[in-house]
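Ligand: tryptophan. Inputs:
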Amino acid sequence: MNRDSRERWSSQLGFTLAAVGSAVGLGNMWRFSYMTAENGGAAFVVLYVAMTLLVGLPVMLAELTVGRSSRRSPIQALVYFGGSAWKPLGVLFVTAGVVILSYYSVIAGWTVRYAVEAVTGGFAEDSAAHFGAIATGTRAVVWHLGFMAVTAAVVSVGIRSGIERVSLILMPLLGVLVIGLAIYAATLDGAAAGYAYYLQTDFREVLSFDVLKDAASQAFFSLSLGMGAMLTYASYLSREHHLPDESLMIAVSDFGVAFVAGLVVFPLLFALGLEKDVVASTVGALFITLPKAFASMGAAGQVIGALFFLALVVGALTSAISLLEVVVASVIDGLGWARPRAAWIAALGIALLGIPSALSQDFLGLMDQIGANVCLPLGALLLSLMVGWGRRDAVAEVSVGAEGVRWFFLWRGLLRFVVPAVLAVVLVLSVGDTWKAFAGLFSSPA
Ligand code: TRP
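Predicted complex:
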């Protein structure tokens, strides 16, 4: 496509909200708070913020710079910025998008189902049995396909009238929902005990490579980095945007929603005496323990639960849209297809790939390991090297629209040395975990 006829965001707010929509998703609403509670409370929050500043923001700024300067979809953008040797990295980005969206949509399908059930009949008393019944099997496939269809419908319409419009409506709604729920949770009897559990500080917990790895990969996943989602959104930007301000805005909003979601979850669990059910940071916490709390709260639980799952659905949808857009933009630019065709066919392929995840939670876990724990850190590691050391002057590119900023040499220094070092550690540890998940899938249970 001719670069000048490429679509643009119609407003700065439109871009910001779409990017925040990509970042704020299932990762914020439950994974962050459980990791925090398990890994040292406020100490983990400090480590997480440090990882965001040291690794997340530099990579975000790198993605925005490459996207805006090239005004192309990931594969071509990397070739433009770094030369044709970087084409495989673009392919890795698109592959990661396909893999992550395939199972993300299955989980999103569960959340839609819970939201609908909350409205129509309330939450099941035996939430564990209920989750067991709906999480895998034909019905899980149907909800997954439905969710993919909605995602495809938005992306097929395009940047301005699809993604931007949906984000302008849904992101403020999400903010209001999460803050409203946190205020409600503060009035519950268990609120203080819940906060104490969530943020109880233990600095010894964070002094381990595993916790460091968890904090870094959570920051990455949560900010939608390492697979060109931010890059793709930035490719529809015009040159006057102040990229450092944009990155900061996205990161602060993302962290804000994650932190506040924890202020919702823990008071609820403690008010209802469910603290013993706070299990490992698996999907169980979200789909079993919380629904149990809602079920025991009667009519109020039905309303609060419905709003909570609605917030999750909104977060999941805007994130899924950004994942699909990476693939669709690449197909449009690479194969020259029209957008609607690219959107529906890409979505269909990804939906089919997601079916095994809707039939087996072990398979879903494996896809998550490969996509989130291996592809993302690897993608971000290579991207930081390309932008830090590559042939194009990244500092000159990022400075456009941000002329007064003096610290870009620091940014390049982080991209050259610190980011690759941290990510290399993360990658080595994650590959070990993935291998275990892989071996587990094929060894028959005793
Ligand atoms: N950031 C989203 C979340 O927290 C997930 C997500 C959306 C994502 N797009 C992404 C993760 C791109 C990695 C890359 O749920």
